[in-house]
Amino acid sequence: MTIRKVGILGGGKMGTEIFKLLGAFDFELVLWSPFPEEIEAAEKELTRKLRRRAAKGGARGEAAAASLARMTFGTDMTLLADVDLVIEAVIESLEPKRKVFRDLDRVARPDTIFVTNTSTLSPTSMVPSPARAQRFAGLHYFYPVSLVSFVEVVPTRKTSPQVTEALVEFVSRTGKKPLVVTSEVNGYLVNRLLGAYYNEGGNLVGEGYWSPRQVDEISRRFTTIGPCESVDYIGTDVILFGVESADESWGRKDHIAVQSRGREPWTSMHFRLRDDGRLGRKSGAGFYRYEDNQPVDDPEYIHQAVKTLPVYHRSPGFDEDTVEKRLFYALLLEAVLTWERGIGSKEDIDYTLKELLGLKQGPFEYIEEVGIDKIRDDATQLAKKVGSRYCPIGFLRRPGDLITEWEYDPWFRHDPAAG
Ligand SMILES: NC(=O)c1ccc[n+]([C@@H]2O[C@H](COP(=O)([O-])OP(=O)(O)OC[C@H]3O[C@@H](n4cnc5c(N)ncnc54)[C@H](O)[C@@H]3O)[C@@H](O)[C@H]2O)c1
């Protein structure tokens, strides 16, 4: 099934970004929003360059005019009656998303594929009718769409293999790498992996021995971006939204970190920052304060904040090598767990971490190189020093190894996608 005509729901940040990406290819495009002012503004913005080029004429002008002719903007949902694929990018809240899909289900062709660009909600929870279930999935673009080289394709249990295949082909056609998330879980593939790294960065700062800058600098021994600076870019509110808003959509408390390693729902340090209005760069302060857009250390605030955190965060100071290992093994063990749970392939996991964090070697490439015995020894040492979240898991484990707390937890064994 070839996708030729695509509808996009929502003229906000992601809707317009996705539209721009697809506008560079020869798709017919429809941008829909229920708000006339938004559609008007989006149309003006998204067609400005093309209109200018078309007015100049010549071969480039003709191509621009042809592109413009393939674009439609409007508030009337019947404009979407004959599209092959609809990408939903409306506000990150379950009810509005459910409503637009229900309305769309009444006007769209029975074979139209519906996808949601949600980052934190369950695609299954938005399926508008049993008849649409096989043609419904997640398609998760990342911001900024033009720069991120991959897109997560998230089939639900009911999505037909042909639909997944069509989405993979569609994503590839637009020059992006499709990462197929093979089990529909909160955080999908990418945010689960990143979450483990951010979480450990927050834990380290929250313990009160290492400043955000030291943690970020040590992390640069194996990455190009530290966990604290990353969180400040994204925003503590955005990061915690996924944790806190998950319940309704996934059917139970299904925090990324709960069904991941470790029992703490999320590091208390991130909550502390968010609750103090330190949302990151956009609010002028997060782990760092920002002056002229430059991160400045804020030891007084960090010191005060750490004092308010629960005592379970206190643990003895560690040397720099241990800090590096804590950060790296947080990623490595999450990678193993992600693969063991059938969420993504080893290749995709390695690719994602190399691409996003600049790792020279992905976790699985590293395991391959140094051997399971070394990984298992390192993890065991960390588990003894830091906590059971570092116990060897999955294929790293041998009989008699330490076992993590969460493995006793029925929550962890529950498969959220099974409902
Ligand atoms: N911003 C990001 O970095 C990012 C990255 C990946 C995925 N996403 C996801 O993309 C989706 C859109 O996010 P965004 O950042 O573009 O948000 P945005 O706030 O820029 O846009 C939200 C859109 O929803 C529309 N909307 C609001 N209320 C509505 C309603 N009741 N019914 C229909 N439409 C309504 C708005 O008009 C707007 O078009 C969300 O699901 C978000 O999680 C965002």
Can you offer a commentary on this structure?
With 419 residues, the chain is of the alpha/beta class. It has two domains: 5-180, Rossmann fold (3-Layer(aba) Sandwich); 190-418, N-(1-d-carboxylethyl)-l-norvaline Dehydrogenase, domain 2. It is built from 17 helices and ten strands. It has helices at 13-23, 36-56, 58-69, 94-107, 161-173, 190-206, 212-219, 227-234, 236-244, 246-250, 268-275, 299-307, 320-340, 346-357, 363-370, 372-385, 410-413, and strands at residues 5-9, 28-32, 71-74, 85-88, 113-116, 136-140, 150-155, 177-180, 289-291, 294-296. The strands form two sheets. An eight-stranded mixed sheet has the order 3-2-1-4-5-6-7-8, with helices on both faces. A two-stranded antiparallel sheet has the order 9-10. A hairpin with a 2-residue loop joins strand 9 and strand 10. Helix 2 packs antiparallel against helix 3, helix 6 (190-206) crosses helix 8 (227-234) and helix 6 (190-206) packs antiparallel against helix 13 (320-340). It starts with a strand and ends in a 6-residue tail after the last helix. The model is unreliable at 253-265 and 408-419 (pLDDT under 50). Nicotinamide-adenine-dinucleotide (NAD) is lined by residues 10-15, 33-35, 38, 89-92, 96, 100, 117-119, 141-143.
